[in-house]
Here is the input.
Amino acid sequence: MGLKLIGEVLSNLIRKSSTVEYPKQPPLALQEHRGRHYADLTKCIGCSLCALECPTNAITMNPLPRKLKQNPRGIYPIVEYGRCIFCYRCVEVCPVKAYITTNFFEMGSDKLGTSNDLSMSTLQGIE
Amino acid sequence: MSLIEIPVGPQHPALHEPIMLRVRADGERVVDVQVVTGYNHRGAEKLGERNTWSKDIFLYSRVCGICNTVHAQTYTQGVEAIGGIEVPPRAQYLRTLIMELERVHSHILIAAVMAEVVGFDSLFMLMMRDREPVMMLKELITGNRVLSDYYVLGGVRRDIDDVKKDKILKVLERVEERVKYYKKVFQEDFTISRRLRGVGVVKPADAIRSSLVGPTLRGSGVKSDVRADDPYAAYGEIPFNVITYSEGDSLSRMLVRFDETLESIEIIRYVLNHLPQGPITIKTAVRVLPPGEAYSRVEAPRGELFYHIVSRGGDKPYRVKVRTPSFHNIINGVIAYREANIADVPVILTSFDPCISCTERVLIIDEKSGSVKSLRLKDLSKGWLGGS
Here is the structure.
């Protein structure tokens, strides 16, 4: 039996590698992966359900810089990624499906990022 | 004759998590082992009393990393019993599917760790490689390799289609072939056999008296499995066998896990081929529950997991008591170390499939006077629990 396992180990020398050279090659995260998510401000109605339901209180509601027709309260959610556990409870409870989800996970940083810039980018080119 | 006391852990090359075994030995022979926990306590039970019913699903999923879906299952089925919530059949089948996938990867993991502990590192690497496709399947279904967060009160969050079903079946075919191969390695390999056979024997009567659970109990020849004894989710409709081995040593505990992995793969095939049509979750959101009480139990990969949930009405639980399988297996498993060699201590501990963060409780007992001390949250936040 011991000899058999040596054959198994040696066959790894000629086999394709099981790992990927990650920074050079794209990572193996699937499309389904729960990664970075942010609110689409053209859809958000400012109902605050996501902030209430967030298990880690990572979402805060902040005033919008300008008036939007569908958002009478004039507030929008900011996700603090340092606190977020990526459970996607906010995505699930949103009544207008305003959250844009991605499989992006490379968020290791010395600064705690928020979803503010990404959410603001959804307002570009909209009156 | 004086005994020497050797601390194994909390930092030890063979242990992956912080736990201390105070081994009292007479030369090479172990006389007694005392388990010291308290390095990883997080206060999850207390924290749960401040969160709402649905937020607690995510909290209790994080009690244990590997067993996260079974923790969510035990908590949600208890809460659903209090609230009288009917779960759709398709959701029950999908819950069964994800729990069995978790059992497959958990059992392959502990077999790989066992290979590493006995000093067989190339086998460890090979098994970890072949475990990875199972993690990929979990990510495909739930959205994350480990922390699935798949449960809501009254159902599950994501559905599967035929494309995903075919992919799962295809990957499992390869996994089954590899698990059969590794089982043969564990049965026949000289190194593993010398380190595991006859080591840490637990007799059936001792196993029952010490309340051991799960594969540790079944490795001693006692037929006990919550899935068969008290079916939950869709297990009542699925045919499967309860695996037992009669030897009671470390090797038989590992072989129980290998056979269970193969059995789990059969369960997954049955679930995928008999998946009922219909909704995956109930339509109404659950926020407030009536007063009530529920005992809930589930067969986790490590054994019987038990929750006691008390509701006094409102949107928060009054009390959630968590009793994990490792709590019994690690603390009551000390009977297995007696008469073993010192070098076998990590092997025996690994054969129990220990999960340390599940086990942590805080109760400080003064060894000399026998007095029990309780701690306030303020004392806990200072860190070290006072040295006893």
